[in-house]
Amino acid sequence: AKEAGRGGHAFFERCMFEEAEDNRLLEQDVRQALNGDGLTLAYQPIIDAATGAVVGREALLRWRHPKRGDIPPDQFIPIIEDTGLIHQIGDWVIREACAEAVKWGEELRVAVNVSAAQLTGAGLAKTVLGALATTRLSPDRLELEVTESVFLGDDAATLASLERLRALGVRLVLDDFGKGYSSFGYLSRAQFAKIKIDQSFVRGAAEGARDCLAIVKAILALARGLGVETTAEGVETEEQARAMRRLGCGQLQGFHFGRPVEASQLSDDLNAPSRL
Ligand code: C2E
Ligand code: CA
Ligand code: CA
Ligand code: CA
């Protein structure tokens, strides 16, 4: 048993080492990607549940590694957060998304994901102000999506940062709501324009799971009371779309309506190459 224990420990240490080594290499690679064209944004449509019209698009970071192929954001974002690269990359995401969104119809919004680490200082507000000024995008067409994790530090600087952003006229969105059983209290910490209901509840509610149904109904009632918009995330089937529509969710997003695609693939009249 002692042998096995030691062996297990050595194995564990090696894994830790390899993971650290791996992350260091990935960090070098992501720096290069930022300088080249390895980082791109994909855009996924957000649909008005009542009319079926596209009302906005969420920008999602994509990294095509020269050797490893596509690396999902869930894998590389924690690394760029640890290394501080998130500031540089996050700034680029905002500028790029704003520059793209001005090419869309006047009413279409663009949503950008923002990490807790990006909210630690005044830097983000400066970036947003600069991006809006350069692109002339109307501030209310930019949505910044944060998860409840930004509140975990209970940091006054984070709240000040969110308020500074909101004062610029951009819309704050609370992402992944319900996941980890978010406290309703987070909704009063900042003035959110919208709540995104996590995919797990969308799936459960459509399947008729009583707990999920009750939670979704409660979230929607709360949102109505607060005058906050709602988007159901990860809608994959017509059945799920119908269920969320019937429950009164305002907007829908998911593979059922469209997968994230590169800007050049957007089937927007203004983006389509002109044909003579
Ligand atoms: P998220 O903000 O919750 O984004 C939604 C994720 O769900 C995206 O994954 C999207 O591709 C995926 N998705 C959309 N519809 C469906 C569906 O119908 N079914 C399923 N199974 N999945 C669906 P993605 O692009 O892999 O991004 C994962 C996470 O990485 C995002 O979750 C967000 O937290 C983070 N992320 C992505 N881009 C950025 C970024 O620019 N900055 C920061 N800080 N985080 C980002
Ligand atoms: Ca999001
Ligand atoms: Ca989400
Ligand atoms: Ca998420």
UniProtKB/TrEMBL annotation:
Residues 23-274 form the EAL domain. Keywords: Membrane, Transmembrane, Transmembrane helix. This is EAL domain-containing protein.
